[in-house]
Design brief:
Number of strands: 11
Radius of gyration: 28 Å
Oligomer: single chain
Structural class: alpha/beta
Helix content: 40-55%
Largest sheet: 6 strands, mixed
Distance between the termini: 26 Å
Number of helices: 21
């Protein structure tokens, strides 16, 4: 059977490619000959020739964007939203073969010059559900806004009105109004950190991660419509519930930890840069009391760094138990800092305080007349007492010993250990570009800054390796221009700039299209960069800012060696991916439009699809 596959999505980027690739493979497995026409922004549109059209037995249209089907009047045509083709292309083709009908001219077209009937996606029907969403990631730089854009585009493509509020590093933007929340049928919380959900009590709420919303935005919306659950609690009183607003849902240790890190991060950045500024006047200038260098050190090291661990513990507890957890969490974090338990002790204190506050809120029943005292008196008192006693008599001393041993190891590492640690951290930073593995390595580095000079080396390796994927993909798009479309080269330019700013997510579009080549290449480059940075003994005072941190004197020691490490890894990634990327960035089936070769039925078509995926 000769089949024509047509795919189109509103953004015209990843979904169009993925759907066409899957359908071509499924058709080839059935022994069908498939010709493909994709409506995409990544390559010029090439319509099918008349010979291909005449020979077609079946036309399969997977589209959530307008497509002119007048050419196929009289042919057996099956039409459905592109989202239905992605999960199971083989089943999609089975339905197409069974349910396809001859395409007729739209009513009133008369002589047939009118457009054929092209049913809109089901969601576009009148009365489609309205959605609102919030996106938030720990650093609040890239994933937050990329996920918001992906959800917006997916909602438009599926025909669902959607409004997205972002909670990034600059605070809340495009804040949802009470009217929009009231009218919404479903709320999507695509958040890797804790956000106040008391506004949505009584609404159907669906929770997911920013990564899922970014990479599978259409599926996220469909899952939200199917699986969202009504959020319990009392509107506007999330604090009093101490976790009741979550209706007992378990959000996991990872999210609680990232919430604490997200609130701690600005404190670490500010403190580290202030300490670096004090070194402008000399490495030991801060020892002279009354000088500006001493004042900067007091602000950065004496205040910001001392508040770092209490903030971490306080907001881990906040993520678990809402506002009543903040006070016992910060008290436990301050004790951890004073006991020498550092950020590890702060993490432990945060979880102890959070679960203690949550337990008091849920299981301690009081008369209605004094129930209002719970969040402001009973919970802080009991949870703080429990957390403090556990930290002083049980947890503090052993965790302090672990921190002391870790600090001693970091400060006395030989070159072999340093290279190994740098390679591991560098590879982790490049594995999933802002995902759990990346965040685990980054959190480790940020936490070590509280250990003093011993933590500056790993932080330098982590930030250097984090810049490599985005810079490398940008370089690859310049080195092998013929293998990248115009839009991909433009994305490469943006990726290069984002990489210089230490925003690894600039490489996500390339990873999403070609993960089997991009991820290993980036991990090798990141491991090399991390190993070189640690071997050279580079130390970094601030955990963010990319190359712009170099503008502050003494923020980084061994500047030239640091730049060499970043350049080596980036060039390795750029050249490596330029070599392993196969073929030109063409649409699957486009090369088959030459006379006599319209139909693709073998591995060659599959390779073309793989090369542009």
């Amino acid at each position: 059977m000769n089949v024509i596959v047509i795919t189109a999505c509103p953004s015209g980027v990843a979904t169009t490619f993925l759907a066409s690739r899957g359908l071509v493979r499924a058709a080839t497995q059935r022994g069908w000959k498939a010709a493909v026409e994709m409506h995409s922004q990544l390559a010029p549109f090439v319509p099918l020739d008349s010979e291909t059209l005449a020979a077609a037995d079946l036309v399969v249209v997977a589209a959530s964007a307008p497509v002119d089907l007048a050419r196929f009047v009289g042919k057996r045509v099956y039409q459905a939203p592109i989202s239905q083709a992605l999960p199971d292309p083989a089943a999609f083709l089975t339905r197409a073969e069974r349910e396809a009908k001859p395409l007729t001219v739209a009513t009133g077209a008369g002589d047939g010059a009118g457009a054929p009937v092209v049913p809109a996606p089901p969601a576009a029907a009148r009365g489609a559900p309205k959605l609102v969403a919030i996106t938030a990631c720990p650093t609040g730089v890239a994933h937050t806004f990329m996920a918001a854009e992906a959800l917006t585009q997916a909602g438009q493509g599926l025909g669902y009105p959607i409004r997205v509020e972002t909670r990034g590093s600059v605070g809340a933007q495009d804040v949802l109004t009470p009217e929009e929340i009231r009218d919404a049928d479903v709320v999507i919380l695509a958040c890797d950190i804790e956000v106040d959900s008391s506004r949505f009590v009584g609404k159907r709420v669906f929770r997911t991660s920013t990564s899922a919303a970014l990479k599978k935005s259409g599926q996220t919306i469909r899952d939200a419509l199917e699986k969202a659950k009504v959020l319990g609690g009392e509107s506007g009183q999330a604090a009093a519930g101490a976790g009741g607003a979550e209706q007992g849902e378990r959000r996991g240790i990872y999210r609680h930890l990232l919430t604490g890190v997200s609130f701690m991060l600005p404190m670490v950045v500010a403190g580290g840069l202030l300490i670096a500024l004090s070194f402008v006047f000399g490495i030991e200038a801060f020892k002279e009391k009354g000088t500006l260098a001493a004042a900067l050190m007091d602000i950065g090291g004496g205040a910001a760094f001392k508040l770092m661990v209490p903030l971490l513990a306080g907001y881990i507890a906040y993520s678990i138990a809402d506002r009543p957890g903040i006070a016992p969490g910060m008290i436990g974090g301050y004790l951890a800092s004073n006991l020498g338990a550092g950020f590890l002790g702060g993490i432990v204190a945060g979880f102890i305080a959070g679960y203690a506050a949550q337990a008091v809120s849920r299981y301690v029943k009081l008369p209605a007349t004094v129930e209002s005292l719970k969040p402001i008196l009973i919970i802080p008192l009991v949870a703080s007492l429990v957390t403090g006693l556990v930290m002083i008599y049980i947890v503090g001393t052993p965790v302090a010993a672990i921190m002391s041993a870790m600090t001693a190891f970091l400060t006395s590492m030989n070159s072999g250990n340093a290279i190994l640690l740098g390679s591991l951290l560098g590879a982790m930073m490049c594995f999933d570009l802002g995902g759990p593995v990346n965040k685990a390595a980054y959190t480790f580095g940020v936490g070590l800054l509280s250990a003093g000079a011993g933590g500056y080396g790993p932080m330098a390796a982590i930030m250097a390796a984090g810049m490599v994927p985005a810079i490398g993909m940008g370089l690859a798009s310049f080195i092998a221009r013929a293998k990248f479309s115009k839009q991909e080269r433009e994305a490469g330019q943006a990726s290069l700039v984002l990489g210089l700013c230490f925003i690894s997510e600039g490489a996500i579009p390339f990873m999403a299209k070609d993960p089997l080549r991009v991820i290993p290449t980036c991990m090798i480059g990141g491991a090399v960069t991390g190993a070189m940075s640690m071997y050279f003994g580079v130390q970094l005072m601030a955990p963010h800012g990319g190359l712009f941190v170099l503008l502050i004197p003494n923020a980084v020691n061994h500047v030239l060696l640091y730049l060499l490490s970043i350049a080596a890894g980036s060039v390795l990634v750029g050249v490596g991916y330029a070599l392993v990327k196969t073929g030109k960035a063409e649409l699957p089936g486009v090369t088959a439009q030459t006379p006599g070769k319209s139909w693709s039925a073998g591995a060659g078509s599959d390779r073309a699809a793989a090369g542009s995926s």
